[in-house]
Description:
The complex is a heterodimer.
Chain A: H1 4-21, E1 27-28, E2 32-34, E3 44-52, E4 56-62, H2 64-73, H3 81-98, H4 100-103, E5 107-109, E6 113-116, E7 129-136, E8 139-147
Antiparallel strand pairs in A: 1-7, 2-7, 3-4, 3-5, 3-6, 4-8, 7-8
Helix pairs in contact in A: 1-3
Chain B: E1 10-15, H1 19-28, E2 34-40, H2 43-53, E3 57-60, H3 69-79, E4 84-89, H4 94-103, E5 107-110, H5 115-126
Helix pairs in contact in B: 2-3
Amino acid sequence: MLKEAEIRTFVEGTTHYFETSGQQAATVGSPYLVTDGKPGTYEYTGVIGISGARKGIVYFTAPRGMLTVLLMRMQETDCSEETILDLVGEVANTISGNARRDFGKSFVISVPTVIARNPDKVAAPHSRSYVIPINWRAHSAKLVVCLE
Amino acid sequence: MDTGTAQGALKLMIVDDSNIIRRRIERSQQIDRLEVVGSAGNGRDAVDLFRRTQPHVVTMDLTMPLMDGVECVEKLVAIDPKVLILVVSALADKATAVEAIEKGANGFLCKPFTDRQLNEALEELLRDA
């Protein structure tokens, strides 16, 4: 179960990522709780496994359109499938890694697993997940935090 | 040491499991005397590349497959204690930064970073080089 301050950590990490890497702030909607184990995905998903003091996953999921614009804002000219997958994993990794500022070193993060167009492969380990809606330059994405 | 680079240039090796970040650092770094000699996507490949190219400066991610950045820092410093290592990582807790410095890293830049922050961190790293 996440505390309000812990959810705020991920919200701030998300806004900081888009402001710094995308050079334009994202609007983050009100986080909400999903209890059916199906928080949902967009086209591309980067999943970070969490172990140590907390266990579960954090994933960032976004459509290709948003990821392509984000690459362009990073002056990246290669928008191949491989690079899109690299980016979605890097976003998940960066937001999860930044959370250690508040969670501490015992919040152990894995290297990213990246998934394209296969929502069934993104399995939430617990029925309860917090979803943080992200809007950036007319695109929508979400960060999902599923920790025991 | 034969640098194999322009006179006075310092060789830079970039280590990160993300291709995007490796290219970003190569593209964004504006330090005239730094010359990129190679990049690696994990700690194990980085050690091999380090032996072959003998860089003076390394940017080092921490969360990587096969061998993580902290272990890699330790190995690179064992090979060349004079190497300058800038850790570039999303791991934002103080304990991780302290551990990397204790293993021999010389600086720490937290992801996500701007081009300006990258260049300032590299300039700080090279201040006494």
